[in-house]
Amino acid sequence: MNALSGKDILRADQFTKPEIERVLEVAAEYERALAAGETLAILRGRVLATLFFEPSTRTRLSFETAMLRLGGQVISVAEAKSSSAAKGESLADTIRTVEGYADAIVLRHPQIGAAEEAAKAARVPILNAGDGAGQHPTQSLLDLFTIRKEQGRIDGLKVALVGDLKNGRTVHSLAALLSNYGVSFLFVAPPALRMPTAILERLREKGVSVAETDDLAEAVRTADILYMTRIQKERFEDPAEYERLKGAYILDRAALRAAKSSLTILHPLPRVHEIALDVDDHPGAAYFRQSANGVPIRMALLSLVLE
Question: Does the annotation count 298 as an active-site position?
């Protein structure tokens, strides 16, 4: 039985562990099929609408590639100014219109909770591709997929999340998903960008080991997974505050001398200053492999939701 059939994908904490494992399993099957050159027609005749009211490269293109790889078709709005939102149309009215053209809708929006609002208006599945500083559940699933591929396991790992933990929807979602496994967390951020208290409390209530620091060197020295994030200029109301914090953490090759030889370095991308170019040829630098994993994961989600 497919528990995700017809469901909205809105938040990372909506998934049970068996559902997570099913998504990872199906993604691995599709990855093998693509590597073997197989042509898939699982979603032939289906149409996916991608509505992106914030900029995106990886998420939009990987969702669209995933649908095409499954034999389906895609219609797209790539920015708010090219849609009727620029004329003042409400999100609910946009969704009610677009559901008449598509079997599922992928939505990115700058407002926290926008995906839930869209789901209330829609009769077709909504897949959240990022709602402001809220959630990014499909990113966290591909992150989990990458961690297992790179490390061979998830349980028992020490995961350091670094950077803008206050506004980072990717780290909010990843922390929720990883709380289903036996991991320990080290949250690395300046005091102004700490992980929200509500997330810390939920993790501790589940018995997850959590520590906080502002010391990147400690994370490099002790972590199995180093998940870097950029300081997000678009989330700051005060430009001076952004300028003060934007260079808080920069990972370069010299800093990695103290790391475990098995360290995996991840980043949801785009990077700005936080990972130096000399890190790219480090064996553990997995962020471009991580980005590529968006295709099989999103293929899995689309096929399960639209089964």
Answer: no
Per residue in 257-291, pLDDT (tens digit) is 999 999 999 999 999 889 999 999 999 999 999 99
Q: Is residue 37 part of a domain?
A: yes
- Examine the domain organization and report whether 57 and 195 are in the same domain: no
Between 82-96, 148-162, 212-226, 265-279, the lowest mean confidence (pLDDT) is in 82-96
* The pLDDT of residue 247: 73
What's the domain range around 171? 137-291
Residue 5 within any structural domain of the chain? no
Residue 2 in any domain: the answer is no
Mean pLDDT of 8-29: 97
Active-site residue 22, yes or no? no
pLDDT in tens, 215-247: 999 999 999 999 999 886 666 666 676 667 677
Catalytic hit among 60, 69, 136, 169: 136
User: For the range 118-124, what are the long-range contacts, defined as Cβ-Cβ under 8 Å and sequence gap of 24 or more?
Assistant: 118/91, 118/92, 119/8, 119/10, 120/92, 121/91, 121/92, 121/93, 121/95, 121/96, 122/8, 122/95, 122/96, 123/99, 124/99
Instruction: State yes or no: is 81 an active-site residue.
Output: no
pLDDT recorded at residue 89: 85
What is the CATH number for 202?
A: 3.40.50.1370
Active-site residue identified among 11, 50, 59, 170: 59
Catalytic residue among 81, 87, 123, 257: 87
Q: Global pTM?
A: 0.92
Catalytic residue flag (residue 123): no
Residues 6+ positions from 101 with CB-CB distance below 8 Å = 47, 49, 75
Q: Please indicate, yes or no, whether residues 301 and 264 belong to a single structural domain of this protein.
A: no
Q: What share of the chain is helix, strand, coil (3-state, %, to 5)?
A: 45, 15, 40
Residue 202 known to be catalytic? no
Q: Which of the following is catalytic: 11, 60, 69, 108?
A: 108
